[in-house]
Amino acid sequence: MKKLLVTGASGFLGWNLCQLAKSEWDIYGTYFSHPESIPGVTLLKVDLTNFQEIKQFFSQIQPAAVIHTAAQSSPNICQTYPQESYPINVTASCNIAGLCADYVIPCVFTSTDLVFDGLNPPYSETEPVSPICYYGEQKVMAEEGMLERYPQTAICRMPLMFGLAAPAATSFIQPFITTLTEGKQLNLFTDEFRTPVSAATAVQGLLLALEKVQGIINLGGKERISRYDFGCLLAEVWQLPTTTIKACLQADLKMAAPRPPDVSLDSLRAYKLGYTPLSLPEELGRIYKLV
Question: Is 96's pLDDT higher than 90?
Fold first, then answer.
């Protein structure tokens, strides 16, 4: 099997990617602060912000393709520590694209729907970017820098994602489930909208992009939904109590990073290539059966 390099293999998306792609690829995954074991995957500690270390790693592994998921993906942390998050979110991404160009191999990058301000949804690939938080700004800089270094890079703008928790990383539904199970109050926004997908669907999209995409593509789901309505749907599918789910507004909660109101993605281009997100009830039901 061909070698696939997955950065950020201990993260939520990277871990799910390794689990789902290892039957078709010989996967080499990088981690930095969370050493984990994934059966059938070779995991190695690599400091992606050290160019010489990445360069040596490429030379050692000789990958046939790269999917770059490693990032500081917390908008609040990026907002509070922009200088600390820049090397992994921007510099490392550009260097990885440059190395993929040197080796002339497919390069897939996981960007975000937060490159938009949320005022003019839904957003297609051709809409001008307009980030309102440092995380979104850093992803825009990474997108532009990677495409400048290697125009064949597939820039995948990812939506809100949920799914099975990795040993060292969860998705946003795990705290929801814990809070509802314990009978505690769960405050969810009624004025923040996304087009979420499961990790399994996101992985399908990334592997599709690896084969068919150069440039920017959206990998959003087919349903636009608020955080509040998603929480209610989760509770319904997982048969959790709903009495403690309370509606609130973004303005009710003080956070470091500004939050756009609606970054719903128009992902028609991906659908035409064969990207097939399930409905949200189907996605949540499938995860429930696996837990």
Answer: yes
